[in-house]
Each structure stands twice: as structure tokens, then as C-alpha cells.
Amino acid sequence: MEIKTIIFNSLKYIEININEPIKAEDIAKNAGYSLYHFSRIFKKQMGLSIMDYVKERRLIKASEEISNGKKIIDIAFNCGYQSHSGFTKAFKNKFGFSPALLRAFSFQINSLGGNCNMSHVFMNYTPIHSTKEELYEILIKTIDKNMLEYDNEKINKAYELACIAYDGKKRYSEDDYVTHLINVAILLSEMEANEETVVASLLHDIILEESSISFEEVKKEFSNRTIDIIKGVMEFNRDDNIIDEDVIMIKLAERLHNMRTIEFMNESRWKEKAKETLEIFLPIAVKLNNEKIIAELNDLSVKYI
């Protein structure tokens, strides 16, 4: 049998068993070779070791599943990773951005009427006019449900500071302003963002607030990375060449919650906001070089021209 045929059959075997705990030995045995000889043949033909190729295929398949709404932690386990963080590191090494950012963009595309097949996720609205206490309970339950590796004490500290900082401030709906921030944090935990991003989302407006909580006090309580994210959100400029994906995720989640709560607007106003959203995030998708997201956003932009 020709080498090309052997490799083709092996690739087919890998695809059929991509969700199974296959080993290099299994693939070599299926090809009729010893592991030593088949490993040399495979690497010469494919430029990758057998298991590096399997890993690549699993990550590509994982990106498709994330876009279709599957939870990152479930995908991580299916791909053979033992933790959310381990999978995230491998995914980011492969694609240059985190799986959570892909999930965030998919949420936004779905909210604008795109084809990410995430309606079952997107429709998880929090109840209208929920209190901050009710929303915080939902946030903690969402973190637990998604098996996110957060320090809940830090989440709670950020929540408490936000409640103090925004005490008495209201949204246009007459809800406490802090409920918007908690909703953003809930969305980020649904997107399976990292802990520092969720913490920052609860405090990202605090620099502009006049309250008993100073920014210096916030800096004492949280990591330098969290502070950098907060500053990044406040100084966000879509034309910047440097992209901080944690900042982008907060902006996406914030816009998504705002889009969910503009039902009082007429259709033309809603479309104006949707078009504005596309104008902000399409250039970012281009910078990230994510062809799937670029195509989705380009298709959506036609609706609002």
C-alpha cells in the first residue's frame, strides 16, 4: 500500500475517533506498523508528530463547538484536558486568542441575529428588575455550573465594593446601577472568561465614580492584572493596535447587556445601536484574524447599512 494511502486512512481513523481517548499506538496499529516506524512515516508526511496532529484536530473541532454554544469546560474534558485553564492555554497557543473570547464574540453575533446557533445559551436572560442580591446569587450559581476556577472570595469582595461605590445610582430603568455590572459579570461567567476579567467587570466604572471607594483602595485589594483590565476598559479605543482580549470581553458583555435592555427603543434606534456594535467589533475581529467571526459580522453588517 502506498504511503499516501496509509496516511489518508490514518487521518480518517483519527477523525472517526477524535472524541475517543486514542493513543499513537492505536493509530499505528490500525495502519499495520510498529509505533516507531509509523511515527517516522507520519511526521515526515505531515510535519507533526501523531499526537500533535490529534491535538491540532481536536482544537480546531473545539473552536467549531464553542461557536455553536457548547460549554468550554465540557469541550476541554472531551479533548482530554483536566482543567479549564489547561485547555485555555493550549487553545490560545494555537489560535492566538482564548476560547472565552471566541465564545464572547459568538454571543454578540447571536444577539444581532447571526448564525452561531447559540440561541439556547443567549436566551438565558436574568429576570427583569432583579435585585442586586438576586443577581449575585445567579452569578455564583453560574460560576459553579460552569466549573470555573475562580476565587469566590475575590468575586464577593468586588461585589461588595461595587455595591458601596454605586450606592444610590440608578439606571434608566430605575434599577440600581450595580445590577448592570452584575449582569455583565454573569454574561462573562457564561462566556467562561477568567476570574480577573469578571472581577474587573464589577468595578470597571469606578475610576469615574465619586464614592467612598477610591481607586487606590481597589488597587490594594486586587491584582495588578485586574487593575490593568479596569484601566483598559476605561481607556478603550477601538483604533488601538494593541488588543487586550480581557478588555474586549468586558466591552462585548457590557454592550450585550445594553442591547438586551433597550426594548423601549423603536426599531430604527435598535438598528442604530446594532450597527454601532458592528462598527466597533468588526475591526477587532479583523485584528484577531478570526475568519469565522469576520464572515459572520460582515454578513450581519449588511442588515444595518
TrEMBL record:
Residue stretches making up the HTH araC/xylS-type domain: 8-105
GO molecular function ontology, one term from the record: DNA-binding transcription factor activity
Keywords, comma-separated and alphabetical: DNA-binding, Transcription, Transcription regulation
Name listed for the protein in its UniProt record: HD domain-containing protein
Organism: Tissierella pigra
